[in-house]
Each structure stands twice: as C-alpha cells, then as structure tokens.
C-alpha cells in the first residue's frame, strides 16, 4: 500500500513515504517536533461585525435562487458570497460565535443541511471544514463549506481514477484491501460503521482518515451520525494532544458512479491559533491539493510594469 525510504541524519531519522496507489509523497521528520512551535491556543474572538451571528446571518448572507436558506437546528446553509467552485455553499454550524466544544446534534444538523444543498447539483461534491484562523478560516464563527464541480479536485481525482484501475486489475476494491491491511497495523484507531486509521502517508500533521461503506453523496444520510461521532472523537483526541485548529474534508464520487470509490473523511491538525497564525492555507491547499489563488497571473505583468 505504501513504501518507506529511511535515512539517518545527524539529528535523527528522516522518512520519505510514497503511497503506491496515487504516487502521493510526503516526508516525515519526527525530530522537528522538538521545535515546540505549537504554543498554547488563544481562543478569545470577538463577534463584532460577524456575518454568521444570529442577528446578522439573515441579512448579511445570500439566498438560493428561490430566495430561501436551509435551516437545520442551529445551522443555516446558503450560497458562498465569494465562491471558488461552480457550486459553493456555506453552513453556519452554531449560533454561538466562538465554540470550543461541539455536540452531536449541532454537527448532525450542519452536515444534513450541507448535504441537502449539495444534492441540488450534479458533479463531484465534497464537504469541508476549516476550524480557526490558523487552519485558514477567514471567519472564526464555525462553518462548513461544500463545493461541487464538473471535475473532481486533484486529490479526489487521483483516488477515484486509481481505485477504478485497481478494481479492474484485481477484482477487489482498493479501500477494502486497505482497511484489511490497516486493521492489523499500529495505525488502526477504531471501527463502527466507519473505519478510522492514521494515514500512513499523511497529507498533514496527525492526519486521520475514516472510510465509509458508500461512494456517493446521496448515500450519506444513514451515516451522518456515525460520521459525526467519529469526527468528535478525533477532535477530542486532538485536544488531548494539545491541538485545537484542524482541517477536514469528505470526498465523494459523482452520483450514480460505481467505480470502486469509497467516501473518505480526512482530518489534519494545524498549529494552534495565536496572534501570528492567520493562514492562507486551508482545506483546498492542504486536503484537496489545489491552491486557491486570488490574483490572475496575466494581471501581474501589467501591475509590475505600471509600478
């Protein structure tokens, strides 16, 4: 499933890891944890001017074409005012502006609302979460983001395509073989309806993945509650390790596809929020492997010459 090349440096062991299915590579340098750059978190965030707070959300956020928003419990779902996808929606998770502990009902309602919004379009959907500014959240108020495009994002495309080829060659699902291998490894975490393990070739610090027994978004509803339960366990685990900020993404194949894909949830921990930790690297950069860029390259030449 993956390979490891290990070298010894003067400071310790360095590993180069490569995932066989996708060719994705990472480097693991355990000695760098000694830098202790992840300080105690600063979680005092004012709600002044927040468009997601209850007194502002209905006037500061857009509606769908029919003039509505989706309400589920505390959550509110609406189109993203500044989209970077053909279909891009936002789900405000809680009424409270700054939240350190989520309960099951809050997240179940939020994921349900987001799922409904993504079911309105075709394409390749994903559900995503940047929690806190150091994880790329531009607004502190907890919220999910859903995107869907005619083509999957870079990471999703790698897995969907490669898993299809794996199934054609071997007559088995890659994800079933992976779970069977990881179930007996030191990376296994827990299993109910969803299989959770530490990714052997991680996309980021402390990456944990959950494999669902489904392929597409329209199959998600019965698994929202176990998914949320698992996510809450991972968040609690991160807290015990001293980590507060994180990114999460849930990757789906296109509706009706039967190509051997399994929906999977990926979570990575990020540096704790502090006065210097606002980040422009969020779920797209870290989990989809597609950077969101604000400036057209064609504009840079003219801007350079003009200045």
Task: Please explain how this structure is put together.
This protein is of the alpha+beta class and 307 residues long. A hairpin with a 3-residue loop joins strand 9 and strand 10. The longest helix has 17 residues, at 154-170. The mean pLDDT is 92. Helix 2 crosses helix 5 (224-240). The chain has 7 helices and 13 strands. A 10-stranded antiparallel β-sheet has the order 4-5-6-8-7-12-13-11-10-9, sandwiched between helices. A 3-stranded antiparallel β-sheet has the order 1-2-3, with no helix packed on it.
Strand content: 15-25%
What is the CATH superfamily classification of the largest domain?
HIT-like
Q: What global shape is seen?
A: globular
Could you say which structural class the secondary elements and strand pairing correspond to? alpha+beta
Radius of gyration: 20 Å
How far apart lie the N and C ends?
Answer: 52 Å
Oligomerization category of the chains in this entry: single chain
Neighbour order of strands in the largest sheet: 4-5-6-8-7-12-13-11-10-9
Helix proportion range: 25-40%
CATH topology of the largest domain: HIT family, subunit A
- Tell me the major beta sheet: 10 strands, antiparallel
The top-level CATH class of the largest domain is: Alpha Beta
Q: Can you count the helices?
A: 7
Q: How do the SSEs run, as a string of H and E? A: EEEHEEEHEEHHEEEHEEHH
């Amino acid at each position: 499933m993956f390979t490891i090349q290990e070298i010894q440096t003067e400071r310790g062991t360095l590993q180069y890891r490569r995932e066989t299915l996708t060719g994705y590579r990472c480097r693991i340098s355990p000695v760098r944890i000694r830098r202790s750059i992840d300080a105690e978190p600063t979680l005092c965030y004012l709600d002044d001017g927040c468009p997601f707070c209850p007194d502002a959300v209905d006037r500061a956020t857009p509606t769908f074409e029919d003039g509505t928003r989706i309400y589920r419990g505390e959550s509110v779902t609406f189109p993203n005012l500044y989209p970077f996808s053909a279909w891009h929606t936002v789900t405000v998770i809680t009424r409270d502006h700054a939240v350190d502990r989520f309960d099951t009902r809050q997240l179940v309602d939020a994921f349900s609302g987001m799922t409904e919004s993504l079911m309105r379009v075709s394409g390749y959907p994903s559900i995503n979460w940047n929690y806190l500014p150091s994880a790329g959240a531009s607004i502190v108020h907890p919220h999910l983001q859903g995107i869907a495009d005619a083509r999957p994002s870079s990471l999703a495309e790698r897995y969907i395509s490669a898993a299809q080829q794996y199934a054609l060659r071997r007559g088995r699902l890659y994800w079933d073989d992976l779970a069977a291998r990881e179930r007996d490894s030191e990376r296994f975490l827990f299993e109910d309806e969803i299989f959770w393990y530490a990714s052997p070739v991680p996309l980021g610090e402390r990456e944990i993945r959950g494999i669902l027994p489904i392929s597409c978004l329209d199959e998600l509803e019965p698994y929202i509650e176990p998914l949320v339960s698992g996510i809450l366990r991972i968040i609690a685990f991160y807290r015990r390790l001293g980590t507060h900020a994180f990114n999460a993404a849930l990757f789906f194949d296109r509706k009706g596809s039967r190509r051997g894909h399994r929906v999977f949830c990926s979570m990575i921990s990020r540096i704790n929020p502090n006065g210097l930790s606002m980040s422009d690297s969020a779920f797209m950069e870290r989990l989809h492997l597609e950077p969101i860029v604000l400036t057209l390259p064609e504009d840079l030449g003219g801007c350079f010459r003009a200045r």
